[in-house]
Design a protein that fits this description.
The protein is mainly β. Helix content is about 15%, strand content about 55%. The protein has a 15-stranded antiparallel sheet that branches. Strand 4 and strand 5 form a beta hairpin. The longest helix has 27 residues.
């Protein structure tokens, strides 16, 4: 079901944005008087679908139809497993950062392009199977959506070990291929101060923020997580003193959360913008756990706190733009004598230019 929802959103959301943009442009060029039979609900829907309804002293629209951009992506992730009894123990795993470069062509909100793995360019193939990542973020003035899918490879390393024997120092490091994770999900959110604050100015370069402004943000998230943890592949020196609570073979849980946060765009110089957004989320998790020593599955339901972080710095003079952005998410899972924390994020560094003026702005350049 979740997969079907994501696919539908991928198809319908961009198309709706295009339709809404065209509709809002046509509405702005006409002097429409309210119809006597037009209901309040219908007028509210029209107002909501007007994505060009913003204060131009704070936000200026993009004057161009198309954009071309060079992009570099770096993906980060980590997983932490811990247990409290009979003694506190903690293991942290993470792969080396995954880098890609690409060229993208944009039309309004949508960028399509092609990216390749930089390790392949430099010949850094070490036989490790890398994971698969898909991150799609669509930003408009009022609402937005993040869609993500991740499947890990076998290139993890232990970067921290605490609470085991004296032969395992805190900076212990070793390869580990016993962790397999599959997750997919989406975030939907609404921007309250959308007439003065612009997410697209910071993350999709489709508008320009002219004055500093902030906004409250509220959203909904849905994700599915499937984790296999083969502790028998851990080094023997760790297995010898490992808490029974950490010997979990499989965890499958669904995460449903409501998040509420704040974002701020700081215009610190002409055409220069810095954005920071943090949204804590109250998450309801239903999970199925299979332990190593048990044949039956355990089902649990609990509440945890997750986080969504967005940050960006951009220079945009309407014609040319360059900048960097980071979008990160954390998920926490706590149950009895076993805890799991994982986080992943994408750092994006880009530069590009806009071209082909929209019809309404061409007269200004004649």
């Amino acid at each position: 079901m979740l997969k079907g929802v994501i696919i539908c959103l991928c198809i319908l959301f961009p198309l709706s944005l295009f339709a809404q943009s065209e509709e809002s442009d046509s509405l702005s060029r006409e002097n429409i008087a309210p119809h006597p039979h037009q209901g309040g609900f219908k007028k509210a829907i029209k107002q909501f679908l007007n994505f060009s309804d913003f204060d131009t002293t704070y936000i200026s629209p993009n004057r161009y139809n198309y954009a071309l951009m060079l992009d570099h992506f770096t993906n980060y992730e980590y997983y932490s497993v811990s247990s409290a009894a009979p003694q506190p123990q903690h293991l942290q795993f993470s792969p080396n950062p995954h880098n890609k470069v690409g060229v993208y062509f944009g039309w309004r909100w949508i960028f399509l392009g092609w990216a390749i793995d930089t390790d392949g360019l430099y010949g850094k193939k070490n036989g490790k199977k890398k994971g698969t990542e898909l991150d799609l973020s669509l930003y408009s003035s009022k609402v937005g959506v993040d869609i993500f899918y991740r499947r890990t490879g076998n290139n993890y390393q232990i970067h921290r070990a605490a609470g085991f024997s004296d032969r395992v120092p805190s900076n212990y490091s070793a390869d580990f291929d016993g962790l397999k994770v599959d997750m997919k999900g989406l975030n939907l959110y609404y921007i309250f101060n959308n007439r003065h604050f612009s997410y697209p100015a910071a993350f999709s370069q489709s508008t320009n923020q002219r004055r500093s402004a902030g906004s409250l943000i509220a959203g909904f998230s849905l994700s599915a997580h499937n984790l296999n943890f083969d502790y028998t592949k851990l080094p023997e020196v760790i297995q010898e003193t490992m808490n029974p609570g950490m010997k979990v073979k499989h965890i499958k849980y669904t995460n449903i959360s409501l998040n509420f946060g704040y974002a701020y765009n700081w215009v610190f110089a002409r055409n220069c913008l810095a954005c920071l957004s943090l949204s804590p989320a109250v998450a309801y998790k239903t999970s199925r756990i299979k332990k190593a020593e048990e044949q039956t599955d355990d089902w649990y339901k609990n509440l945890n706190i997750d986080f969504i972080l967005r940050a960006g710095v951009v220079y945009n003079n309407s014609k040319y733009f360059a900048g960097a952005s980071f979008v990160g998410r954390t998920y926490d899972y706590y149950r009895h004598n076993f805890s799991l924390n994982n986080g992943f994020g994408t750092l994006q560094v880009y530069a590009g230019f806009n071209f082909y003026l929209k019809k309404e702005y061409r007269k200004e350049h004649k």
